Every structure is written in C-alpha cells, then in structure tokens.
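Retry 2 of 3 after timeout on previous attempt. Resubmitting structure tokens to design endpoint.
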C-alpha cells in the first residue's frame, strides 16, 4: 500500500502519549500518508489475568494463550485499549476508525505452535481491498488478533505490526517502546544490523523483552519495508534497522 506508515504502540502507552505524537500523525496525514496503528495491551492483559486468578505465562516473550486467556485478551484489546486510543485521537481532532480481524475477515492467521503456545498465531494475509479505502481518509486503529477459518488467535503486537507492514508493503514501520531505542552501555545505537543484534543477544545486552521487537523489526526490513525504527517517540530517530 503506497505511502503507508505503520505504528505499533503498547497498551500502556495509550495513556501516556504526548502532543508531539498526535502532531506527527496529523503531519503525515496532511502530506498524504496513510497511517495504521497496531496497539498492544500486554500489561493490561496480565493485570486482568491476575485479578481473575488466571495464570499468565510467557515463553520467548510470547504469551501462552489458552482459551480463557484468549477471551481476556479480546476483552482488553477490543473493550479497553482500543477505545482509549480512539478517544485520544478524537480529542486531538484526528479522524480514526477502530478495526479488528473480523471486519470483512481483515486479518487472517495460522497457529504458530499450538503445543508450545496454544492459541497464538502469526498473520498470513490482510484484506487490503477493504482496508485501503478506510485509510485514505482515517487513521486505522487495529488490535493484534487474527482469524483462521474457525477461531481467533492472539498475535504478538510487534510481530503483527511487522507482518502487516510487510504484507501491505508499507514505507515505514515504527515500533514504539518505553526506551529511546536499542541501548548499549546506556547509549542508543543509531543503527542495528543482524550481526550486531546476534552479538548483543549472546552478550545478554538484548534481553527477553526486546527480543520479539528486534525479531519483528528485521522481519519487516527483510520483507522490503524501507524504514524500520525502534524508538520511544515518532519525532525521534531511535534505532534504525539496517
């Protein structure tokens, strides 16, 4: 999709977004870019799980999602996180539309590894014909869930953003996090290639929380997304994936 910018933000970030975030979105729209936001909600899902005494387990940074956890995930993403973000966008006079996998079978996926992760998936297709006209006039706000022919799947939000950016041939992908980029000795690395990433992972400088984000970033870059950044704000350079 020409001139598409995909932005991934965490669920907690929806309450902490600053004015410059919304101004950047407005600037992009003003020059004709289309914007799609993929929102997570991991901390909120964990908090609700604990409140309801449902075990919250992760492996390799991926939430193990049984049927109960899947229902809680849908409740948080579609009933809490997405409405909060849409409200923020409306307050800043930005036209936006909430989206999920069931809208005209928008996001199609398949199981990642049922034995290991249960109902966790990876995205295999996006209904671009349905999505493109919506993004021509509005900012899309999409939950990281997918559908098979018969069931919902939870998808890691970073992986979802990378897959969607790749499938739609986005120009840019921003993976927003709570740090200004990939850090080494408390300094932001301006660029990161795969060899560097492997060395930092081996040295335990890149830890479990950042690993899915970096894997997703390289997935998108290798699929042809021209500019992939890990950063904490849209106006900052952060770490460029090369």
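Retry 2 succeeded. Sequence:
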């Amino acid at each position: 999709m020409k001139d598409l910018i995909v932005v991934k933000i965490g669920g907690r970030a929806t309450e902490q977004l600053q004015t410059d975030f919304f101004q950047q979105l407005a600037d992009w729209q003003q020059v004709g870019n289309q914007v799609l936001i993929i929102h997570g909600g991991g901390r909120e899902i964990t908090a609700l799980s604990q409140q309801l005494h449902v075990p919250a387990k992760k492996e390799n940074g991926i939430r193990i999602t049984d049927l109960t956890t899947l229902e809680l995930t849908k409740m948080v993403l579609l009933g809490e996180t997405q409405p909060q973000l849409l409200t923020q966008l409306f307050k800043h006079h930005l036209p936006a539309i909430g989206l999920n996998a069931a809208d005209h079978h928008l996001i199609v996926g398949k199981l990642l590894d049922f034995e290991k992760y249960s109902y966790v998936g990876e995205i295999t297709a996006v209904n671009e014909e349905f999505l493109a006209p919506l993004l021509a006039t509005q900012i899309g706000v999409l939950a990281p869930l997918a559908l098979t022919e018969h069931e919902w799947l939870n998808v890691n939000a970073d992986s979802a953003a990378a897959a969607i950016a790749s499938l739609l041939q986005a120009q840019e992908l921003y993976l927003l996090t709570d740090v200004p980029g990939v850090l080494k000795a408390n300094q932001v690395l301006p660029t990161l290639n795969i060899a560097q990433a492997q060395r930092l992972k081996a040295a335990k400088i890149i830890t479990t929380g950042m690993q899915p984000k970096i894997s997703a970033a390289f997935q998108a870059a290798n699929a042809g997304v021209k500019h992939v950044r890990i950063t904490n704000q849209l106006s900052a350079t952060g770490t460029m994936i090369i």
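Attempt log closed. The first strand starts at residue 4 and ends at 9.
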